[in-house]
Each structure stands twice: as C-alpha cells, then as structure tokens.
Write a structure and sequence with these properties.
Elements (H helix, E strand, L loop, with lengths): L1 H18 L20 E5 L6 E5 L2 H11 L3 H4 L4
Antiparallel strand pairs: 1-2
Protein name: WGS project CABT00000000 data, contig 2.43
Keywords: Signal
C-alpha cells in the first residue's frame, strides 16, 4: 500500500515537471569568458538547392525552410 502511494506520488511529480514549458527555466547562468549567442545554420531548403544561412533555434530554422519549401519535410524525409 505505501509503495503504491510513493510510486503514484513519484509519477505525479515526474508528470508535473514534464508539463512545465522550457521557457519557465532561465538560460544557464553565464560563465566568465563565455556568452550565450544565436546559432546560424547552413541549410539547403530543397534537394540540390543552394545553401542558405538561417539564424535561430532548430524549430525556427525548420519553420523557415517549410515557408520557403512547403515540401521540405518530405524532400528530406523528416516525416
């Protein structure tokens, strides 16, 4: 009985932490001599197409690629 209650409580806490959005946690604190910056990605938006530079998160880069090429996911078998 007690182990069941403990297990249920642990499952609840794990579920609660998984439900919290990442934005709720601040970026890692700065380390002396280092900084947090934007990432610039070199990607092709279509097979054989030119390489373009896109700055942002991986989600923003994929969103950009899908805007430029609506078939981006299927062209690069991301589905």
């Amino acid at each position: 009985m007690i182990s069941s209650v403990i297990t249920s409580g642990a499952v609840f806490l794990i579920s609660l932490f998984q439900a919290l959005p990442i934005a709720a946690f601040p970026a890692a604190s700065k380390i002396d001599g280092y900084s947090i910056g934007d990432i610039t990605w070199e990607i092709q938006t279509s097979p054989g197409g030119p390489v373009v530079n896109v700055t942002g998160t991986v989600q923003e880069v994929i969103k950009y690629a899908e805007k430029v090429n609506p078939n981006f996911r299927s062209d690069f078998t991301l589905d």
